[in-house]
Structure formats: C-alpha cells, structure tokens
Amino acid sequence: MARWGMVIDLDKCTGCQACVVACRQENNVPFAGPEETARGRAIFWMEVLPLIEGEYPNIKARFMPRPCMHCDNPPCTKVCPTSATYKNQEGIVAQIYPQCIGCRYCGNACPYTVKFFNWYAPQWPEEMKQSLNPYVSVRPKGVIEKCTFCHHRLIQAKEKAAAEQRDLVEGDYLPACAQACPAKAITFGDLDDPNSQVATLTRSPRAFRWLEDLGTEPKVYYLSEGA
Q: Which of 33, 71, 146, 223 is the most exposed, having the fewest neighbouring CB atoms within 10 Å of its CB?
C-alpha cells in the first residue's frame, strides 16, 4: 500500500500561482468574490504564501506553496464528532462532505490553517459552468473543505492500471498542482518506496517539514534555499 506525499522545492518556486489556478479548476473550488473575501471567507485548497526577507530597499521575496499537509498524525481527525474527516489507508486525509455538520472543530485543530468553511452556496457564472470538473463534487454551504491530493485522480489511475493488468507506477498519479508547476518545484509520489523520486528528495539535507515539532508528522516536505 502506497503512502502518498509531496516535496516542494522553495528554491525553484517562482510564485507564479499556476498550482493555485490548477487546483481551483481541477477541484471546483468556489470563488468568494470581493465582499466575502474582505470578510475572510476566501477558499484556497492550495495557497502560495510570500516570504519577505530583509528590509527595504534590500528585500528578497520567496514563496511557499501550502496545500493540506496530510499528516500521519492529523489533529483534525481526532476532534471531528462525526468522523467526517479521516485518514485513509494510503495516508490521504479525506473529507466526507455529507457527514460534515460544519462544527469547524477540525479547522480550529489544524495548525496549518488549510481547512476552509464554506460560508455560502457556491455559484458560478453561466459561462463557467461548462468548465466544472464532473469527477469532483460541488460542496454545499456549511461544510469544511480542503486539499485531497486530487484523490479522484488516484481512483482513475488505479482503474486504468487495473484495465491494463499492471501495478501503479511512478507518474501514473499526480495532483493538478504538481502537473501544472512550470518550474517542476512540486514532486509527488509514494513515500514508502525508497527508490521513488519523492522519497529520495525527503532524504536531502535541505529537506524539512513545517511545524514538525508539533508531532503532526506532515507528508508534505519542503526543500530550503540551496547554498
């Protein structure tokens, strides 16, 4: 059984936001609009955080993409009273939307602030409805939603591999963010396969995990700026 994880090279990330756009389009992430955004109700399954170093005029800008960390010891799953959020056998922290009662305990427990409460019924202009992904549900008002590592793509990759009577191989399954990154800053794969590219990168001396001292054991690794 695979254990899916991600490595993001901060030395390669240009902050272009291609991962954000790809994630939003792939997963039918709703648009908040200026009024809801001003009230702190924007939804981003993938967000690029700016890291500003130095003082003006000697400023250096870095960028840190932030998806769900899909922790091996996720605090969010421990507080959900309806088990709407859970970690599956392959390490993906998933959401069961019909089970979610919107109590937002999981959002409060997440130290990475990557869970978002859907405050409003999502609406799209008529001309944009044709672009919605039919393989991903449109979440209703009143539930928590988050990055799922594009789990629907994993299901499709498994079905294709089964039809071809073979096992999944590296590259069969990629989230939209990793596929769209023009700088190839995002690497994705099976962390339990020691020969996979993603597992090799986690052993780099540049590798670190965000807020690792909290004991959440995130499966998203970062590569710090190279020497």
A: 33
